[in-house]
Amino acid sequence: MRVSALMLVAGLGVAGSFANAGVAEVVAMFDLHDHPDGAAAQPYYGLRLDNVGAPGVMTLSMAMHDDTTLSVIEEDGVFSIRIQGTLHGGQVSSHEYVSSNDYSIDFTYGANVVQTANGYRVDGFTTLNSGVLTNLDTEDEIVLFGKPNMSGLAFTFQADGHRMSGDNSTWVGRGWLTDEDDGSAPGAGSQDWLFYATQRDIPAPGGALVLACSGLALCRRRR
Question: For 19-58, how does the pLDDT look when each residue is reduced to its tens digit (9 = 90+)?
Fold first, then answer.
């Protein structure tokens, strides 16, 4: 299992330390919810990580804490996507949790984000598309990376009602993940996002959240 720390350097107070730092603006923000078609059985989930960190089926729900968000950020015409929040879940057997914990998630698709007619997609593999899942009870951390499928697609976030029983307009996020820093599959089972989203107002000031962004430092160690 990989254990690591993820440091996001952001804010006006540190912007001056980066001569080439641009101003990134949140252009859309969404509340995220478990997809009702996740494995077509309870416990429903928004993130599934089988055989990541521990063997077996692992699902993580967005419903209990209801604070997971997705922000679409634009800087000089380049888009990124950040997912943050608190999840609840753990190992599953016979459609029930064997044990469960609270986790924080902070994941950024920082490269290869392309705007489409009805949303966004992320192509290919890069370690810039990464984040950390933290067990809030043990403080163990797992670094996750976006993993492209055989067509080279790693993630989509589109208003297309994917697997929403005839609803063709709801925003849905889906994509693949791995804890391997070369983008390879972590093992058997499913490792993916599957959630739907409802758009929310962008926080002030001025109807937009302006971020003086710098870089993302990802430090890893094995345990």
Answer: 345 789 999 999 999 998 865 678 899 999 999 988 999 9
Measured in whole angstroms, the distance separating CA 222 from the mean position of its chain's CA atoms is: 22
How many residues in total does the chain contain?
223
Cis amide bond preceding 43, omega within 30: yes
Residue 2 token pair: 């990989």
Q: Which of 59, 98, 96, 89 is nearest to 189 (CA)?
A: 59
**pLDDT tens column, 135-164:** 999 999 999 999 999 999 999 999 999 888
Structure token digits, residue 98: 């064997």
Provide the 10 A C-beta neighbour count for residue 188: 10
Residue type, 155: F
Round to whole Å and give the CA distance between 23 and 46.
Answer: 30
User: How many Cβ atoms from other residues are within 10 Å of residue 182's Cβ?
Assistant: 9
Tokens of 95: 């459609």
The contacts of residue 131 (CB under 8 Å, 6+ apart) are 6, 83, 105, 106, 107, 108, 143, 144
